[in-house]
C-alpha cells in the first residue's frame, strides 16, 4: 500500500476530487496548508501598504491506496491539477506499512 500526498492550488481541489472519484478513490484527507517553493511568494498592496506574502495558500491531499492503483491516482491528480504555471504543486508517494480501520478492526487493503 502507498500513501500519496499531493500539494495543489486550492482552486483545483474540486477538479482533483472529481478525477480521483473517477478512478475509484473512496477517501481523501484534505488539509489547508501554506508554503512556498520556486514560486517564492509575491508582493501585495493592502490599504496602501505593500507587504510580502512569503507563504502561499495550498491544499494538501493525503490518499491511502493499494499498489495497483497508484499510477492511476498520480495521473488523475497530475492531469486535473495542472495549469501549466509555476506553483502547480508536487506529488509524494511513500510506503504504508499498516492501515487499520478503527470501527471494524479491518487491516490492510480492506481498511482502505
Fill in the keyword field for this structure.
112 residues, alpha+beta, two-stranded antiparallel sheet, 6 strands
What report would you give on this structure?
This protein has 112 residues and is α+β, with helices and mostly antiparallel strands. Helices cover 20% and strands 37% of the residues. It is built from two helices and six strands, in the order βαββββαβ. The strands form two sheets. The chain has a four-stranded antiparallel sheet, covered by helices on one side. Strands 3-4 form a two-stranded antiparallel sheet. The N and C termini lie close together (9 Å).
Describe the structure in brief.
With 112 residues, the protein is α+β, with helices and mostly antiparallel strands. The chain has helices at 13-22, 70-81; strands at residues 2-8, 29-35, 42-46, 49-53, 56-65, 89-95. The longest helix has 12 residues, at 70-81.
